[in-house]
C-alpha cells in the first residue's frame, strides 16, 4: 500500500504492508534513497521485496514502513538536468553531486523530525527506530545520514561511498581536471573535509564517533564497478568502528558493475528483517 503526503512542500511516499492499518505494533521506518538521474519510483524493487518479506513474518515485533521521496534536483524536484551530469557535461559536477547528497541527508533528518506527527497525529502509533538504505547517489546520502543523525540506527549503503574525495578525485583526474578551483573551490573542500563521513572520527571507540551503536550493511560491486569502485570505500569500511552495541557487515559482489542485482537486494532485505 502507498500513501503520499506533502510535508513543507515535499512529496513523501509511505509504503506499508497490507495489514498496516489494523496493526498496533511499533514501527521501523526505513528511508529508501534512489540513485543519480533517477527518481523515487526507481526504488520499487527494493520496496516490494522489503514489504513482501515483512508481511510474511507473522511473529514480528515491529511493523515496517518504507519512506521515499525524490532527491534534490531529481524527479518532481528537477530544476536543472545538467547539474546531475558528470564532468563531461557539467564542469560543476563535484559541487553539484556533493550538495545534492548533503541536501538529501538533511531532508531525511527533517522528515524524521515531523513524519510521525503527520502520520499519527493522535499518537496512535510510534516509530521506534529509523533506518536508511540507498543506491548509488542514495548510497552516498545514506552514509551522510548515518554520520549526521544519531536517530538513524539501521544503515544500508548500496554501491555508494562514504569518502567523497576518494570517489571524486580519481573521477576528476580521469577527465583531466585538477582537484583545485574552479572545479573544486576552497570553500567546497573546507566543507567536505569537515562534514564527509571520512572526515569524522570513524575509527574511534570514543563517543565522538557518530557510527557507534549503528547496524551497518555495506553492499558493493567489485572491480567491475567503474563508477563507484570498492576502492573508494574499502579503507573506510574496513577501519570503521561501530562498538559493542553496533554491527558491521560488508559484502563485495565480484563481477557486478554499477548495479544492484537480486542477490544484493536479498541481502538488504534479510538485514532489515532481523530488525523486525
UniProtKB/TrEMBL annotation:
One of its GO terms (molecular function) is hydrolase activity. InterPro entries: AB_hydrolase_fold. Keywords: Hydrolase. It comes from the Eukaryota. This is Alpha/Beta hydrolase protein. It comes from Favolaschia claudopus. The lineage of its organism: Eukaryota, Fungi, Dikarya, Basidiomycota, Agaricomycotina.
